[in-house]
Design goal:
The protein is about 35% helix and about 25% strand. It is α/β, with parallel strands linked by helices. It folds into two domains: about 250 residues, 3-Layer(aba) Sandwich (Rossmann fold), CATH 3.40.50; about 240 residues, Rossmann fold. Strands 9, 12, 13, 14, 15, 16, 17 and 18 form an eight-stranded mixed sheet that branches. Strands 1-3-6-2-7-8 form a six-stranded mixed sheet, sandwiched between helices. Helix 17 links the parallel strand 17 and strand 18. Helix 3 crosses helix 9, helix 7 crosses helix 8 and helix 12 crosses helix 13. The structure holds adenosine-5'-diphosphate (ADP) and the ligand O=c1ccn([C@@H]2O[C@H](COP(=O)(O)O)[C@@H](O)[C@H]2O)c(=O)[nH]1. Adenosine-5'-diphosphate binds next to helix 3 and helix 7. Keywords: ATP-binding, Kinase, Nucleotide-binding, Transferase. It catalyses: uridine + ATP = UMP + ADP + H(+); cytidine + ATP = CMP + ADP + H(+).
Length: about 500
């Protein structure tokens, strides 16, 4: 699945002319857990810095590494080109006349580059600027990035700043013949950056070449590996082998570790007082039990299933609404009387569903909060290992930006909590974005008493969970899967967990 973790509107809003493809490339085969059973991040992302002269082949090396890594977790290529400073009208006029020095370290916002890189390395989201080489200007848009297990930072000055050098796990310098660099630069700048050949040469002789000798080449001494600017396949293979071994050391067996734990303290607080528990079970009225009976019945038609799921979702969301802060509001009634009441006291509120089975709760949320924005997280189980993989992140704006996320309240939606591996991953993702733990309300139809709920509650004690039923069983199984390829049909088995008595696969029964 290409281009993960990118905001969709970014794709729509920016035209190809801004050459955004060079600046950031993302590829992913799913991100395995990056945190431990205590909910805290275990390891930082692996960061590679690639320096070298202009057109030496830095981007090429970065892309070849991604290609050669093959089926690896998410990789982000972050180009230092995105961090050229914002320019005044005069500076832009100088730039268009080839009289602006873009090759001096001061031309790049090193502090911002280091901050964005540090955020990504620490598994937090970041919003990087977008730079237009045609306009010689930083654009007003920014690009949201999150979730990289491997980050490749490339640019002429990536090894220049000591603060930056401290962030890299591996430092690479691309060493290329000057004539080749000049020839490549002429071709590229005329074709892609809207320049004339005379302009490119003038800029090269005035700024690019002297800066390369003074600022870029000297940083080669900080590199762990020097890679040639052409015919570098062997060097790239060596680098990928090293990265793979680093990633293997970080691999985890997360779901296996959190399932089937002792459940004595599972649903209640350590004090044993249910009131202190982070889990709220809807009052088990006959009416509620009636709804669950319809939903559990395998004979229930799809139409009835949808109807009763929507009803139940509304009840759950109404209960969840009680956990939000309210403030006093005075209104004048139609009888011209002053009346003191309440209104929500939140800056931002949104929903995030864990796909696909969180979807059936969305209608309930929209019934209660008509204009709510709902994002999504696609978490899937690796069929072979049973480990959760984060495949797609599409979050509302109030979470994507950290300064908004700290004030956001989030209804996290998933049909059931069984091993709790998906819930764990979704909560960690929200925390990485700066959402406060006690601002997360997890809404679900079912919780498996013998699943991972205990570990989830002890890792994130301030996250409130609202559910309508607690089931006693959780069974690990292998499901046969068939797919067609060419002429034939091929089958394989996939690991799955079944809640008992349960309601079957809620997402499938609702959507299929
Ligand atoms: N090893 C290589 N073999 C062939 N062409 C290359 C190689 N490295 C780079 N190039 C070509 O040179 C040009 C500039 O490379 P690029 O990676 O964009 O440079 P940089 O990122 O260092 O400015 C591109 O057209 C690219 O395809
Ligand atoms: O507005 C600008 C900004 C930068 N440059 C030149 O770009 C190169 C660095 O990019 P590479 O992709 O590493 O080649 C640098 O040498 C600047 O001179 C520019 O021309 N205009």
């Amino acid at each position: 699945m290409p281009d993960l973790y990118e905001a969709e509107e970014y794709q729509r809003d920016l035209s190809e002319s801004f050459q955004t493809k060079k600046n950031t490339v993302l590829s992913s085969h799913g991100r395995p857990p990056w945190y431990g059973e205590n909910g805290l991040p275990l390891s930082n992302a692996f960061v590679i810095g690639i320096a070298g002269g202009s057109a030496s082949g830095k981007t090429y090396v970065a892309r070849q590494i991604v290609k050669s890594l093959g089926s690896t977790p998410t990789v982000v290529i972050m180009s230092q080109d995105s961090f050229y400073k914002r320019h005044t009208e005069e500076e832009m006029a100088l730039a268009h006349a080839n009289h602006f020095d873009f090759d001096h370290p001061d031309a790049i916002d090193m502090a911002m580059f280091a901050d964005c890189l540090a955020d990504l390395k620490a598994c937090r989201q970041t919003n990087i600027p977008i730079y237009s080489f045609k306009e010689h200007q930083r654009l007003d848009q920014s690009k949201y990035l999150y979730g990289a297990a491997i980050i490749i930072a490339e640019g002429i000055m990536t090894l220049h700043d000591p603060k930056l050098r401290d962030l890299y796990d591996l430092k690479i310098f691309v060493q290329c013949d000057s004539d080749i660099m000049l020839a490549r630069r002429i071709l590229r700048d005329v074709k892609e950056r809207g320049r004339s050949m005379e302009g490119v040469l003038e800029q090269y002789l005035r700024y690019v070449k002297p800066a390369f000798d003074n600022f870029v080449l000297p940083t080669a001494r900080y590199a762990d590996i020097i890679v040639p600017g052409s015919n570098n396949a062997v060097a790239i293979e060596l680098i990928t082998t090293h990265i793979r071994s680093q990633m293997n050391e970080r691999a985890r067996h997360f779901r296996r570790n959190i399932s089937y734990r002792s459940v004595d303290k599972c649903l209640n607080s350590p004090s044993g007082n249910p009131e202190d528990s982070s889990l709220t079970l809807l009052l088990q009225t006959p009416q509620l039990q009636g709804i669950y009976t319809v939903l559990r019945d395998e004979k229930t038609s799809r139409q009835d299933f949808i109807f009763f799921v929507d009803r139940l979702a509304t009840l759950l969301i109404e209960k969840a609404m009680e956990l939000l802060p309210y403030k006093t509001k005075v209104v004048i009634t139609p009888t011209d009387t002053e009346c003191s009441g309440k209104e929500l006291d939140v800056k931002h509120i949104c929903g995030v569903s864990i796909l696909r089975s969180g979807g059936p709760l969305e209608k309930g949320l929209q019934r209660v909060l008509s204009d709510v924005t709902i994002g999504s997280l696609l978490v899937q189980t690796d069929g072979k290992t049973g480990e959760p993989l984060l495949l797609h992140v599409m979050l509302p704006k109030c979470i994507r930006e950290r300064h908004l996320a700290v004030d956001a309240w989030v209804f996290l939606l998933d049909a059931q909590i069984s091993t709790a591996a998906s819930a764990f991953m979704a909560i960690r993702t929200l925390l990485d974005h700066g959402v406060q733990q006690d601002h997360i309300i997890f809404v679900t139809f079912l919780v498996a008493r013998t699943g991972g709920i205990h570990v989830l509650q002890s890792a994130f004690p301030k996250v409130r969970i609202i559910c309508g039923a607690i089931d006693s069983g959780l069974r690990e199984t292998w499901i046969e899967q068939y797919h067609s390829e060419g002429e034939g049909q091929y089958g394989n088995t996939r690991k799955a967990w079944i809640v008992e008595p349960g309601m079957g696969h809620i997402g499938d029964r609702y959507y299929l």
